[in-house]
Amino acid sequence: MKHAVVLLSGGIDSTTTLAIAIAQGYATYVLSFDYGQRHSLELEAARRVAKSLGAKEHRTVKIDNGIFGGSALTDNVDVPKGRSEKEITAGVPITYVPARNTVFLSYALAWAEVLGTFDIFIGINALDYSGYPDCRPEFITAFENLANLATKSGVEGQRFRIHAPLISLSKGEIIRCGTELGVDFSLTHSCYDPTADGRACGRCDSCQIRRKGFREARLQDPIAYA
Fold first, then answer.
1. What's the CA gap between 35 and 100, in Å, rounded?
2. What is the CATH number of the domain that holds 150?
3. What is the sign of the dihedral through the CA atoms of 20, 23, 25 and 30?
4. Which band of pLDDT confidence, cut at 50, 70 and 90, is reported for residue 134?
5. CA-closest candidate to residue 53, choices 29, 19, 100
6. How far is the C-alpha of 36 from the C-alpha of 197, rounded, in Å?
7. Which residue has the higher pLDDT, 79 or 123?
8. pTM of the entire predicted model
9. Cα–Cα distance list, 197 to 46, 73, 183, 221 (Å)
10. Is residue 223 in a domain?
11. pLDDT tens digits for 165-175?
12. In angstroms, rounded to a whole number, what is the distance separating the alpha carbons of residues 164 and 212?
């Protein structure tokens, strides 16, 4: 069986990406990160998702939360609420976490080389991505080139591949894809600023993009909102 490392946050995109990797015949080694994010409920979601979809192994990496400062997801900064679609897509938002996907992919690359596998899956999306610079196709291409320059395996002729199967899909298309693959979206978590009892706020950028996606897919969002 083929093997792959899959990055899993516990949200819609990474969950659907994991389902795609499994559907393509990969035994999946799943990697999540605890980096001090205020929406740490996503780690519980990641554990539920990995178990539900049958990941071969799931690890959560602890990163010093002092590394990822300056973001509304990690610092004492208000999470934007109630923004219009135009505002959400205008520039890089305060919820951007510095170099996050670069760091995450670096961990995935290291684990992949240890495992002797050369396929890495990440659920980034270039359409409904809220302006994050590390969610663009150019970033994936650049990191794949880096992976093959900066590793023993790459130098010796193996070829790492960074798979981003959702890169050109809308959120509605992603939700339909996941549904067709049997994903239980009630297990997922998307909210940047959940309530104390774990319900999604419904008003942050991530919640609004999620709700828009379910409307586009003409499906009922199964999670609870405040």
1. 10
2. 3.40.50.620
3. positive
4. confident
5. 19
6. 19
7. 123
8. 0.89
9. 18, 18, 24, 18
10. no
11. 999 999 999 99
12. 22
